Amino acid sequence: MPGWWAGKIRRVRVHLGAQVSLVERDAIARVLTPAQLALFDGMHPADRRHGLDVRAALVAEGEGDPDLLLAALLHDCAKGPATGLVPRVLWALSVRYAPGTGPILASLPGIGPGVRRMRDHALRSADLAAAAGCSPRTVDLIARQEAPRDPAGVRLARADEAMG
């Protein structure tokens, strides 16, 4: 449990000060299609930072699978730029400690839309990735990020969790 809390505290810190340097963005622009880059650029800065960190963790482990590395970058794209910190924290706490409270949180004024984006982000991110021309395998890795069914998906989930 301390590892879970440490990861979530790290994510809050990253969320508050997230940045992607021009060098990092230019490097990503060289490997993404224009539609994929638009999807990446449309993400909240914290989600862009997180995607880059998850991708870097996989590369550091020797991963070279382009579908997996693309999934790492875009797996949270449906959270959107407007999902603030409060819905993210409440959603993470509800999943961890009170799974039955999701519908209640999703109906609350003000934070409901953000909570729903958090709840639905895996499948919505997969749909957005498909619309941006990602391969079916990348789309599947994104869609199944919370319940992977193959070794690549397990590696993505592990790197995602390690990055908070």
Major sheet attributes: none
Rg over CA atoms: 15 Å
Low-confidence stretches: none
Strand fraction equals under 5%
Number of spatially distinct domains: 1
Give the CA-CA distance, first to last residue: 13 Å
Number of strands: 0
Q: Tally the helices: what do you get?
A: 10
Helix and strand element order:
HHHHHHHHHH
Percent of residues in helices comes to: over 70%
Instruction: Find the structural class using helix and strand composition.
Output: mainly alpha
Mean pLDDT: 90
Tell me, briefly, the overall form: globular
Compact summary:
With 164 residues, the chain is mainly alpha-helical.
Structure commentary:
The mean pLDDT is 90. The protein has ten helices and no strands. It has one domain. It has helices at 2-17, 22-29, 34-41, 45-60, 66-74, 85-97, 102-107, 112-131, 136-143, 151-162. It is 71% helix and 0% strand. The protein is mainly α. Helix 1 (2-17) packs across helix 4, helix 4 packs antiparallel against helix 5 and helix 6 crosses helix 8 (112-131).
Set out the fold topology:
Elements: H1 2-17, H2 22-29, H3 34-41, H4 45-60, H5 66-74, H6 85-97, H7 102-107, H8 112-131, H9 136-143, H10 151-162
Key descriptive features of the protein:
mainly alpha, single chain
